[in-house]
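Support request from a user on the community tier.

User writes: "When I paste my structure tokens into the form, the page sometimes reloads and wipes my input. The last time it worked, I copied everything first. Here is what I submitted, just in case something in the input itself triggers the reload:"
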């Protein structure tokens, strides 16, 4: 394939792996390499990245601010769906990959590039997420995954190559944890965390305090939604990025959003990961509470029956698959009446719903009351029960 590649767009961070990749791609394919760095809120230092990329062999560097699109189109979609993988994981990494890969393809098309490259390893989920997006958006694109092709076996090999070729990197031989950060979460893998019996060291956490060191007083918070999407906190309208940043900060102070799990990767292995997702943890609780008074029972149950498939599709990387597009449209349709406010109490790792209201509420106190009423005839329940029991009685206890 090397002789047929004319221009490559590399997903680039300036770290050890992609810095070595940039030089390796230049040497192997002898073609122009354009670098692309996506800002999804990871907070990494972007200053000087252009110079570093050019000095390592790139013809240019695109730095793209995708934070607004990431939260508005991807994170909010997951909130509307109450999407959780294997009952625990809110999928902060999974949701970021398609927005990054989508922009990478757009840049490749703008540049007239015939190939794209990424830094994901051959063991993880990210290679699948990137490449399924590439192929969905540009079926004839050539994909280069250096970790599956090159001669290097690990980080020591990469650092030796960088030293030999005078590639400036800040990596050291000791890197106890692999982290991935964006506006939604921070994840931690590797090191001592590879032992599923070992408790995560407190000093790894960046977004959240431990519950025992969290604020000692509870804090009340009111979140407003329009058609399932959060739009305001305590009556103040906020854009997607500012709203999520605010909830991350507030939730972190109260020790909310830590998750420790062993998950099933799409490629087949089990992997232990530790995550901090304070803002979306709060939003999931609030959104569920608002749906409890605005969604019809059967609509809610039908939507919930899709959630395992929805979460799997996000986790596996099928964001642009036809079945996922259909599920997204279905989710959006269920959210047309999910407008209103939810009041929560945050305290030492807990998100406690204490109030919900909506102009579209289906809750009727006159019907639900345990006091005397003239709306609901309790005798009607007898016929309802007997009709539902008919098949059970005909079965004779079999």
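"...and here is what came back when it finally went through:"
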């Amino acid at each position: 394939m090397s002789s047929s590649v004319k221009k490559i767009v590399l997903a680039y961070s300036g770290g050890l792996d992609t810095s070595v990749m940039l030089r390796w791609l230049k040497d192997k394919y002898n073609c122009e390499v354009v670098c692309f760095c996506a800002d999804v809120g990871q907070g990494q230092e972007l200053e000087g990245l252009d110079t570093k990329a050019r000095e390592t062999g790139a013809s240019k560097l695109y730095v793209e601010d995708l934070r607004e699109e990431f939260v508005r189109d991807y994170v909010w979609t997951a909130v509307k769906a109450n999407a959780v993988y294997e009952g625990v994981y809110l999928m902060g990494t999974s949701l970021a990959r398609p927005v990054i890969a989508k922009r990478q393809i757009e840049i490749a098309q703008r540049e007239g590039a015939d190939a794209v490259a990424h830094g994901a390893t051959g063991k993880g989920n990210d290679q699948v997420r990137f490449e399924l997006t590439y192929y969905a958006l540009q079926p004839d694109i050539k994909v280069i995954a250096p970790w599956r092709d090159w001669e290097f076996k690990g980080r020591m090999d990469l650092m030796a190559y960088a030293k030999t070729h005078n590639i400036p990197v800040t990596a050291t031989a000791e890197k106890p944890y692999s982290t991935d950060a964006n506006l939604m979460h921070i994840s931690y893998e590797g090191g001592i965390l590879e032992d599923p019996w070992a408790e995560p060291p407190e000093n790894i956490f960046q977004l959240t305090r431990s519950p025992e060191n969290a604020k000692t007083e509870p804090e009340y918070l009111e979140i407003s939604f329009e058609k399932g999407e959060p739009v305001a906190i305590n009556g103040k309208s906020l854009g997607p990025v500012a709203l999520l940043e605010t909830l991350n900060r507030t939730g972190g102070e109260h020790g909310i959003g830590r998750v420790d799990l062993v998950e099933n990767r799409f490629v087949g292995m089990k992997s232990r990961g530790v995550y901090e997702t304070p803002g979306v943890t709060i939003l999931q609780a609030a959104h569920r509470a608002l749906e409890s008074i605005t969604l019809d029972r059967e609509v809610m149950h039908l939507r919930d029956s899709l959630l395992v498939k929805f979460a799997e599709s996000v986790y596996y990387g099928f964001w642009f698959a036809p079945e996922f597009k259909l599920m997204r449209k279905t989710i959006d349709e269920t959210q047309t009446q999910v407008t209103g406010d939810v009041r929560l109490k945050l305290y030492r790792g807990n998100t406690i719903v204490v109030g919900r209201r909506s102009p579209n509420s289906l809750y009727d106190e006159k019907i639900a009351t345990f006091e005397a009423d003239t709306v609901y005839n309790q005798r009607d329940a007898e016929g309802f029960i007997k009709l539902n029991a008919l098949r059970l009685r005909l079965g004779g206890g079999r």
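Agent notes: The reload is a front-end session timeout and is unrelated to the input. The CA atoms of residues 148 and 210 lie 38 Å apart. Residues 369-394 form one domain. Escalated to web team.
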